[in-house]
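Can't paste images in this forum, so I'm doing it all in text. The chain is below; anyone willing to post the predicted structure tokens underneath?
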Amino acid sequence: MSFLTPLFLLGGLAIAGPILFHLIRRNTRERFTFSSLMFLRPEPPRVSRKSRLEDILLLLARAGLLALLALAFARPFFKQVVTPDQANDSGQRVAILIDVSASMQRTGLWDQCMARAKAIIDETKPTGSLAIYSFGEKTRALLRFEQWHQTPEANRISFAQQALEGLQPGWEGTHLGNALLTASELLDQSDSTQAMQIVVLTDQQEGSRLDGLQGHEWPTGLQFTIEALEPESIGNAGLHLAAERASDQNASGRLRVRVVNSEDATQEKFQLAWVQPNDANATGITHLYLPAGQSRAMTAPPRPLGENWRLALLGDGESFDNQLFLVPEIPKPIRIHYVGSEKADEVEGMRYYLERAFSDTRAQRASILSHSPKAFTGQLVHPDDHLLIVTEALPENAISRVREFCQNGHPLLLVLQDEKLGSTLAALAESGPLATKEAKVEKYALFAEMDFGHPLLAPFNEPRYSDFTKIHFWKHRKVDEGRLPGSRVLARFDSGDPALIDLPIGRGHLLALTSGWHPADSQLALSSKFVPLLYSMLELGRETDQIKAANLVGHPVTLPSSEDTVAELKGPGGKISLPEKTNVFYAEEPGIYTLRGSRETSFAVNLPPAESKTSILPEERLAGLKLPLGAESAEDAANAEERKQAMLDEELEKRQKWWRWLIVGAILLALFETWLGGRTWRRPAASNEAGEVA
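Text version of the structure:
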């Protein structure tokens, strides 16, 4: 028998109390005064023999009561010994996860990682199972279980050592959660009862992503061992684009960047400057003071003239995240074609408002090209042509070319400012005759139904932007949308008539607006919705036409998917082979990339900002995930066995509950002691009285 709280057994020493009290002889409780003895000096009775125990049964009852209480508080139970895990090394399945993220480039980390990985391989018995994986943003197999078993036992260790040759840390972020899930799924695929272990070699930096681990059910018998590697020097500072501005420039034309300093940093003084490859000289140096554990957003110094400049953070001991690659923003030229007979300064015409809707920005430079309907041939072959707006009937020889322009993925806006444009709409839609007539409007019409699920109106799908009821329409045309197969009504007037119709043609969109935006038809051009609506139309033809100027290593970069684009990409290391049948590219290192096709496009790729958070991952984050972590040393293993034994003891005691029966026994014994003590108290008095009377 064992005890959960054995210190309460010391309470059994209280048994000495009743024994001492029983050894003390008590005087007679009742006294009789005799007159003949009144002049004698009172003296206590002499004890002629040594004190001896009296009322043995009462003494045993009292001692037993104290003993039962001490035993009850000590919570006794019948113990079962925890059997240590007898993992058969010859049948154990081990998966090694090696962190190859950018933060592993810090001084001393990689040498430790390789030394520990080789030691684990040497400790593995050839009769077991071993797999090796590297992980950054993605998890990659270096040695699979199948390859291990296909190799002769005598060559397995050396074969595994060879799998590590040439392995170096890259530039990706640390997705630790994805690596753990991938390894556990691979181990769980086997029906074998072998013990499973995942050993993670990582710097355990705070920027590690742990997505998907919360609440995950791990396979039975799986254990994780996370061996945190320590760099030779602590602390790190990093340089990144300011998150709130991304790659945008502020009003002064200078970039906003963010500098972060880790919590364990010892360096607090840095410089921000522009540098060139293999050039020790720096220009535009800006000094800054940044205490440990803080970050600061600031304006970068002006960029010098010329190419190959990069922004650098100087003064930090770890340089893997101290450079920022940037591509000078060159406004993209955009050509918008307008087919109409109005003059540019005609206030009552639609062209007047269109000229003022598009303005030059840092990202684009828009130009409006006006065409007379009679002279328009529909030749839209320039790569900068993005949008065509038709407000008057097109000649027959231009219909096919305009349709081709739309089929190639460009938006076409047809404004029905009179009934005559119904024939142009029917010709472009190839729908046959289409009746179009002037609608009867009492006072004015309003937008009543809006399809905010369409990409054109999606930017307005918020309460503060979705109110179109203040726009008055004096005139509009009625169109039977049922005669346009495949069309989708994006907006309706309060009368139920279509206001804006979308008809997909090839990869493009034919948009039919049944009312003009000039003052004779509506107040649309004077509303706050007009300019955003035109820009939204422009974006319909630019879904895959632009590459983000700033991208991250290991994250997808969407390249243009135009059929006439020559797939040739050049990166920091030279020419890169693009994957077939996909326009998604994953950069493996930071730098400037150039895509050559119908037009040359450059974009920058930088390090994920989370890699600069090199402080140790808080233990409470891992503890909250409830990972089945294994012991890292013999001492940890012994402590783990002690914790298991303690938990088993507590569970057994709660299940057996012997203390309840001991308490019941103590209560019964207390009642017996009370009854027996009462009888014993009266018996000496009666005998003494009888003796004195005699």
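The first strand starts at residue 2 and ends at 3. The two ends are 57 Å apart (CA to CA).
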